[in-house]
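Narrative of accomplishments. A recurring question from our advisory board has been how the design workflow behaves on a single, concrete structure rather than in aggregate. To address it, we present the structure tokens for one chain from the evaluation set, followed by the sequence designed for it. No filtering or post-editing was applied between the two.
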């Protein structure tokens, strides 16, 4: 078997009683896994590790659990990212209690321009389905990273909406990285890993259990600048995610729902308690003017020969001049959507007839 980078952390997490919290404490005190294994029982106890667990660390030999976990990581093409690594997300790292180790399929980045979590019920109404898919699609088209839990319902719709716009999305699992849950989302996990990342704090072969999902929800909240609850019943896990977000100083948003809808009981309660109402993507984006700069475009030359542009490109170009125009203004003038227009704009940019500018036009 090929050696997996950071594999010693699987050894540590397989030790009974250690876990992510105590491992983070040891890494803070001593550094890498190799340095932890080199410490004496007395040094480990001085770092706050109970005597029994310290003894297990000092006498450790690779267990069958750790060996099988490493095989599973290799089989599913996952890797181990620790809080000491350069690609560990800074938002998560700055949270109250970040996990020491993440198991990852896809590309994880330390910094993202804007990250928004979208969560909600597993049994959405038609209204909730439409709202989740549209908001995620329009946010993804604007370069916003969408984080969710890949569960049935709103979570899956959020991932799919973002992917449909060519956006980057991150799925946080409440089980091992090698376990597709729910099973019908196996293909979706592959798409997310190719266009973003699938992550978990749980060792491979960890089966999904009810008690693991609140831990998953806190990572969703802490990975994000803000959390949007689309539809949530009175005891929905989405409300737990929103609570984690609020406690960590993150923003909480909610999509309003009908007063007679069970699926909107929780989201309407969030609005009553101070969450910001969301009826369009701008309600979210305007909260992040300091970190999010929408795309603007401007023409770079006179209209090229007719043969150089398609009919749609010509239609767009006639609306452009030397002064920048915001994509949202183009969308309004053309009567289309941002997800429909962005591929055309990219083609025009590649032809050199327009250029993308940072920031909003003055």
């Amino acid at each position: 078997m090929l050696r997996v980078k950071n594999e010693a952390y699987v050894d540590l997490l397989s030790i009974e009683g250690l876990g992510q919290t105590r491992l983070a404490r040891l890494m803070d005190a001593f550094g890498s896994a190799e340095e932890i294994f080199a410490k004496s029982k007395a040094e480990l106890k001085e770092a706050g590790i109970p005597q029994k667990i310290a003894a297990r660390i000092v006498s450790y030999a690779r267990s069958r659990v750790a060996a099988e976990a490493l095989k599973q990581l290799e089989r599913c093409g996952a890797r181990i990212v620790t809080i000491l690594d350069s690609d560990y997300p800074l938002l998560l790292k700055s949270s109250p209690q970040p996990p020491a180790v993440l198991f990852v399929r896809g590309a994880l980045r330390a910094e993202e321009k804007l990250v928004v979590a979208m969560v909600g019920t597993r049994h959405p109404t038609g209204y909730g389905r439409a709202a989740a898919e549209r908001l995620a699609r329009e946010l993804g088209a604007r370069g916003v990273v969408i984080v969710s839990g890949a569960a049935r319902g709103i979570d899956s719709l959020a991932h799919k909406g973002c992917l449909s716009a060519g956006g980057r999305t991150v799925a946080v699992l409440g089980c091992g990285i090698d376990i597709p849950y729910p099973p019908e989302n196996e293909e979706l996990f592959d798409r997310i890993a190719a266009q973003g990342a699938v992550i978990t704090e749980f060792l491979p072969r960890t089966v999904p259990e009810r008690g693991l999902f609140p831990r998953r929800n806190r990572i969703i909240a802490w990975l994000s600048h803000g959390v949007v609850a689309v539809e949530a019943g009175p005891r929905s896990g989405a409300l737990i995610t929103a609570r984690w977000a609020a406690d960590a100083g993150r923003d909480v948003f909610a999509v309003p729902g009908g007063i007679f809808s069970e699926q909107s009981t929780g989201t309407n309660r969030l609005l009553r308690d101070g969450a910001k109402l969301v009826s369009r993507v701008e309600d979210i984006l305007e909260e992040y003017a300091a970190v999010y700069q929408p795309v603007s475009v401007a023409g770079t030359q006179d209209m090229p020969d007719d043969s150089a542009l398609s009919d749609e490109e010509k239609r767009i170009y006639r609306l452009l001049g030397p002064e920048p125009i915001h994509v949202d203004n183009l969308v309004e003038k053309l009567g289309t959507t941002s997800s429909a227009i962005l591929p055309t704009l990219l083609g025009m940019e590649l032809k050199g007839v327009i250029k993308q500018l940072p920031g909003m036009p003055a």
